[in-house]
Amino acid sequence: MLFSTTLFLFSFLPRALAASWLTSFGPYWLFLLTLTGASAYFYAAHIPAYLWLLGLSAAANYVIATLIGKGHRRWLYLAGIAFNLAPLGYFKYWDFVARNIDRALGLPFTPSNIILPLAISFITFEQIAFLSDVHAGRVERGSALRYAAFISLFPKLIAGPIIRYTEMLPQFRAEKRPSLDLIVTGLCIFSIGLFKKVAFADQLAPSADRIFGLASGQLVSGTDAALAIAAYAAQIYFDFSGYSDMAIGLACMLGLTLPINFFSPYKATSIIEFWRCWHITLSRFLRDYLYIPLGGSRGRISRTYVNLFLVMTLGGIWHGAGFAFAIWGALHGAALIINHAWNSIRPATLAGSRLVSFVGWTATMATVLFGWIFFRAVDLATSRNMISSLFTPWATSTLEPRAIHLLGFCWLLILVCPNTAQLFGFSFLLKGSESDYLRQIPAAKLGLVALGGTLLFFSVVIMVSGTPNAFIYFQF
To answer: How far apart are alpha carbons 428 and 436 in whole angstroms?
Structure first.
């Protein structure tokens, strides 16, 4: 059940909000139970048979956390991590590994056509972080109901953010509940994200899909290759930005606060800054639960660079089972190494130079756009054809003028307009806590409501006139 469908917007969401609102007046456990039930229904709408997997995984992790909390047993903690990685390895990587083993041995490969459970990658990381924080004494396991509400929370199931139990448990203990003000505010934020998805991301998708599809079997013109890369870069930007807004808006309607996961990454002047703004919670997870345990930057500089490269390559593989994803991650790992090396030798006088910032932004965007070729292509052959096509004659594009005009307008929005949180002053989103900002400035609140209502109306018009596209990060 996608957020950008009428089924979600006019069936599931009103019922979930109504049930949450009504139960919020009673004991808090009843509200949490309702929230968990609504999330379970949302999860089962994807593939009902996989609901048992979510329940079993959550129950097992809670039991393991209980045992870890009593004895701080390292072997049990490591066994818990292995327990979480096993389903991810099977569902996400089994076909890829079996295909390549059969190819190496010259055996026929029969795909098992495994359907990926909803949010398995995000849930796996959240549960690993949960066990790690319990093992390190950073958080208590809390009640079983609180943990169930945390791990199944439907606003973050499709594509994150990867939230930590340390962020949600205090909100549950404070008995955060929905209110009319939060519902209105959250609906407006959700509407902004929905409009980004259906009006921009979904409209850019056909251009990128057509050219990348052609490149799977042949070269295309240099013009089409460049436009397709730009179209996909803008598509994934609005797709992920839109989803991040929608997730935050939905949580706000429920009285909860999710962390910022996206913050104008295409304005970054370095690849380091890019990863501080793109999929922020994934970057944070990789840093805290992989990079630092590997040694981080505590050892020799060569070891630091090896850790960076390894973490980013593994981050690429996390996105998908394929060599193209590994190359994409390795590319970003190499870029981070170069960025850190430059920072270590850069003269202090150049720190605030506008020229250096512009050169840094240009190099960052070139790296990001080049990397999207591997991220979007279905295989290495398509990636190779797209790269080769950039060096072919730049003839007139085969894309329709309307598609090119839309692409230009979208890039203008990306580079000129501020991030949603900046645009509307949602300082509470950045601080991770509620604020009375909108209550203090009624005009801003009324303007936000008017904008949200307008965007929601046009989004619905677009939704009912076309077929919704799945979120790009839905497949991860």
So the answer is: 8
Which among 17, 125, 210 has a CA at the least distance from the CA of 473? 125
For residue 383 the two structure tokens come to 């990636």
**Of 279, 204, 202, 317, residue with least CA distance to 473:** 279
Helix (H, G, I), strand (E, B) or coil at 262: strand
DSSP for 217-249 reads TS---HHHHHHHHHHHHHHHHHHHHHHHHHHHH
What Rg value do the Cα atoms of the chain yield, rounded?
A: 23
Look up residue 278 and give its DSSP letter: B
Q: Do 324 and 380 touch, CB atoms closer than 8 A? A: yes
pTM summary value: 0.91
Contact 372, 229 (CB under 8 A): yes
Please, are residues 261 and 284 in contact by the beta-carbon 8 Å criterion? no
Residues of the chain under the 70 pLDDT cut: 71-72, 111, 418-445
* Residue tagged active-site, from 46, 135, 279, 319: 319
Closest CA to 291 of 272, 310, 275, 277: 310
Measured distance CA(358)–CA(378) in Å, rounded: 33
C-alpha atoms less than 13 angstroms from C-alpha of 193 in its C-beta half-sphere: 25
d(CA 182, CA 434): 9
319 carries an active-site annotation: yes
**Are 121 and 87 a contacting pair, CB within 8 Å?**
no
- What's at 146, amino acid-wise? R
Residue the block writes with tokens 């079996």: 98
Q: Check if the beta carbon of residue 323 is closer than 8 Å to that of residue 316.
A: no
Burial 318-356 (b: 16+ CB within 10 A, else e): bbbbbbbbbbbbbbbbbbbbebbeeeeeeeeeeeeeeeb
Neighbouring CB atoms inside 10 A of 181's CB total 14
* Span 147-173, pLDDT tens digits: 999 999 999 998 879 999 999 999 999
Residue 196 DSSP one-character state: I
3-state secondary structure of 315: helix
Cα–Cα dist 56/93, whole Å: 21
Helix (H, G, I), strand (E, B) or coil at 57: helix
Predicted local confidence at residue 454, as pLDDT: 86
**Rounded CA separation 472/438 (Å):** 32
Closest C-alpha to 84, from 106, 60, 114: 60
Other beta carbons within 10 angstroms of residue 361's beta carbon come to: 18
- Compute the distance between CA of residue 447 and CA of residue 409 in angstroms, rounded to an integer: 24
Record the tokens describing residue 260, joined without a space. Answer: 């910022």
| Domain chopping of the chain, boundaries | 6-178, 181-475
DSSP class of residue 298 equals S
